[in-house]
Structure formats: structure tokens, C-alpha cells
């Protein structure tokens, strides 16, 4: 069955710079290691994509709609459909004193923020810093290899992957999502360890807000915290146990004489 806008899918992909054949982004761990761009803090797994809503290159999105589940596709994305052409006007030179003022010492390759814009330090010469505010992939033709691993069919599965967008390292098998009979109430039970995560209250509020906005029949999202109380069985002192065993081992005549 073909895909259509609004479908929730899990997408595996690799993006390559056509000019130098270098991998610039991937969801596949082995591919990242082979390309020398692996980062231990990155999570390598298929991404949740909502076709027609998630930000995708237009040629890629169209190719995905025409593909089937598990089918690998390769799409070439020209600069105009990717990150645009390079704009020489976005390359500027500023005095290095601007950085000293904030106690910073820039290095070539650094990403810095100037006037709320991020730029890359291209060169430092004679007290002047050349910054490039173009996107690093501006002017590049990209080749994207992608595959839809799975289409999410149930509301429960869709909500689970929405949760993972906000808590990327959560184990989905530990997440329980339930719906009321009329679908107006969503019940979410997260692993107890999430209680200790920073800003968990804000994260829950955002999850609830997104669930409410994506599923218009939902009027309430309920989070359940379940804490199991573990009690240790009180053990008898070792000496008491030894004494009991000693009494049990005596003949009845000896016990009665005592």
C-alpha cells in the first residue's frame, strides 16, 4: 500500500555529499563508524517521520510516498532543493577584539554566534576573523539513501514514538500507552527512572500538548507513576538459628532432664 501525507513512519537514511562522497549524516551506527563520524552521545536508529509534516527535502518526500515498506531508495538533491546556493554576502570579516571582549579565543572551524546568527570561523589573519554564515552544506548536491522501516498503524504506537522524540534514550518496551474506550483519554506510564530526569515536568507538558494537537479527539492525557515498595524479610540472628538447631538435635531424654 502506497504511503500518503499524514502517515507516521520510521525512516532510516544516510546523507552523502556528492562532491567528495563523504557521509554527512546517518541513522545507521555501522555507517557512521565506517565514515569516521560516529559520536558516542548520538542515538543511531530510524527516525519518526510524519509524511507531509516533518522537514524533508521535497524530492526525498515524493520518492518515499512512491516507495514501499522496506524498499531502499536513492535520491539526488540539488542545492536549490537542499540548503540553497552559497551566498558570498554571508561571508564577513570582523575584528578579533570582538571575541576578546567576551573572553573568547576563536579557532578555525569553530561555530560562533554573532548578532544571533551562527557562523563558522574560516580564517584568522592579522587580528581579523573571517566568518561564513552560509549553511555548511550550502551549494552542495546531496545524495540520500533512505528506507521506510515501518509504518506505525496504531495510535498507541504513534504516541510512543512521539514520547521518544522528547526522551530519546527511553526504552519503548518500558512505556505503556492506553486509550479510553472512546479515545478521549490517553494514559501514559513511563519508567520510574524518568522521574529523576531534569525538567521532566516540562517534558510531560510538551508531550501532552503535542498528543492533544495531533489527535484532536483526545481531551485529556494522564501520566501514571507506579512505584513498587520492596521490603526485606527480617532475618533471624545467626546465633538464634544455631541455638534452635542445637535444641532440635538433642535426644528427648536430654531435653526432659533439663
UniProtKB/TrEMBL annotation:
InterPro entries linked to this entry: FKBP26_C, FKBP26_IF, PPIase_dom_sf, PPIase_FKBP_dom, SlpA/SlyD-like_ins_sf
Domain called PPIase FKBP-type: residue spans: 6-106
A single GO BP: protein refolding
Subcellular location: Cytoplasm
One of the record's GO cellular component terms: cytoplasm
Pfam family, one: FKBP26_C
UniProt-annotated stretches for the region Disordered: 239-258
Family (UniProt): Belongs to the FKBP-type PPIase family.
Protein name: Peptidyl-prolyl cis-trans isomerase
Natural source organism: Vulcanisaeta souniana JCM 11219
Lineage: Archaea, Thermoproteota, Thermoprotei, Thermoproteales, Thermoproteaceae
Amino acid at each position: 500500500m502506497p504511503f500518503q501525507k499524514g502517515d507516521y513512519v520510521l525512516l532510516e537514511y544516510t546523507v552523502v555529499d556528492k562532491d567528495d562522497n563523504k557521509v554527512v549524516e546517518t541513522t545507521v551506527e555501522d555507517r557512521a563508524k565506517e565514515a569516521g563520524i560516529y559520536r558516542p552521545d548520538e542515538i543511531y536508529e530510524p527516525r519518526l517521520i510524519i509524511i507531509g509534516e516533518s522537514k524533508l527535502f521535497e524530492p526525498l518526500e515524493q520518492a518515499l510516498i512512491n516507495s514501499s515498506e522496506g524498499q531502499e531508495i536513492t535520491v539526488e538533491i540539488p542545492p536549490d532543493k537542499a540548503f540553497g546556493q552559497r551566498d558570498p554576502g554571508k561571508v564577513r570579516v570582523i575584528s578579533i577584539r570582538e571575541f576578546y571582549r567576551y573572553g573568547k579565543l576563536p579557532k578555525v572551524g569553530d561555530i560562533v554566534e554573532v548578532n544571533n546568527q551562527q557562523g563558522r570561523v574560516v580564517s584568522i589573519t592579522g587580528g581579523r576573523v573571517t566568518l561564513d554564515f552560509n549553511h555548511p552544506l550550502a551549494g552542495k548536491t546531496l545524495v540520500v539513501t533512505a528506507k521506510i522501516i515501518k509504518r506505525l498503524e496504531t495510535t498507541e504506537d504513534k504516541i510512543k514514538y512521539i514520547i521518544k522524540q522528547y526522551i530519546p534514550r527511553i526504552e519503548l518496551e518500558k512505556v505503556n500507552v492506553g486509550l479510553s474506550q472512546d479515545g478521549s483519554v490517553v494514559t501514559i506510564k513511563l519508567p520510574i527512572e524518568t522521574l529523576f530526569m531534569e525538567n521532566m515536568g516540562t517534558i510531560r507538558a510538551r508531550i501532552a500538548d503535542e498528543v492533544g494537537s495531533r489527535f484532536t479527539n483526545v481531551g485529556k492525557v494522564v501520566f501514571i507513576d507506579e512505584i513498587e515498595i520492596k521490603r526485606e524479610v527480617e532475618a533471624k540472628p545467626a546465633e538464634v538459628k544455631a541455638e534452635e538447631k542445637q535444641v532440635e538435635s538433642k535426644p528427648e531424654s536430654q531435653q526432659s532432664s533439663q
